[in-house]
Amino acid sequence: MESFKRLFFYICAVTSCCVLQKCSAWRKMEYNSLDQMPHYKECAPLVESLGYVLVELRIVPQKTQHKVLVVISRKAGASAEGESGIGISDCAKVHRLIEPRLEALLNTKDLYMEVTSPGMERTIKNAAEFSLFAGRMLRVWDSDVTEWIPGKLVTSDDKSVTLEKEDSSVVTIPYERIAKAKLLCE
């Protein structure tokens, strides 16, 4: 860890972006409402009607088609037949349901769509995603403490996230102190 700090300090010193350990190069977690994603409001209720939550909807127009990435997860506490993850049949159900909606919204029949799970250790890209993973184990990099803080996600809002640590203590971390966050495999 010490060698990493020295290397990081050196890189920052060369690029003139650091003053001791406080660095503007550390990315801060931002809260952007999920409804701000194009067509999220139109697709999320459809996905939720099947018992899943829409984590991410990314639409990238290309030369002759639209590439669509859809990330889904199970609702907190929900499981089918004892499963806690997302399988191929789950992705296929969601694909069949939202493809016609997206074709109508984008006014095209030429879509390339991928429907996936968040993965075992998804990196949380937007602070608004925390609300989708309530009750799940995750870890956040607190830039004030400069280390990972693991815990169970208790609650989140537009300003901070609250975790229950392994010792049952509760810690609230404002988003401006979070550099990274990842779901943990349970």
Describe what you observe in this structure.
The protein is an alpha+beta fold and 186 residues long. 23% of the residues lie in helices and 33% in strands. The protein contains three helices and ten strands, in the order αββαββαββββββ. The protein has helices spanning 2-14, 40-49, 88-106, and strands at residues 18-19, 22-23, 52-61, 66-74, 111-116, 137-142, 147-156, 160-164, 170-174, 178-183. The strands form three sheets. It has a five-stranded antiparallel beta sheet, with no helix packed on it. Strands 3-4-5 form a three-stranded mixed beta sheet, with helices on one face. The model is unreliable at 5-25 (pLDDT under 50).
Order of helices and strands: HEEHEEHEEEEEE
Gyration radius, rounded? 19 Å
Determine the number of helices (DSSP H or I, runs of at least 4 residues): 3
How many beta-strand elements? 10
Low-confidence stretches: 5-25
How much β-strand is present in the residues?
25-35%
- Bulk shape: elongated
Q: Helix content range of the residues, please?
A: 10-25%
Largest sheet: 5 strands, antiparallel
Give the N-to-C terminal Cα separation: 26 Å
Supply the helix-strand structural class.
Answer: alpha+beta
Integer average pLDDT: 83
Keywords:
single chain, elongated, three-stranded mixed β-sheet, 3 helices, 186 residues
Layout of secondary structure:
Layout (H helix, E strand, L loop, with lengths): L1 H13 L3 E2 L2 E2 L16 H10 L2 E10 L4 E9 L13 H19 L4 E6 L20 E6 L4 E10 L3 E5 L5 E5 L3 E6 L3
Parallel strand pairs: 4-5
Antiparallel strand pairs: 1-2, 3-4, 6-7, 6-10, 7-8, 8-9
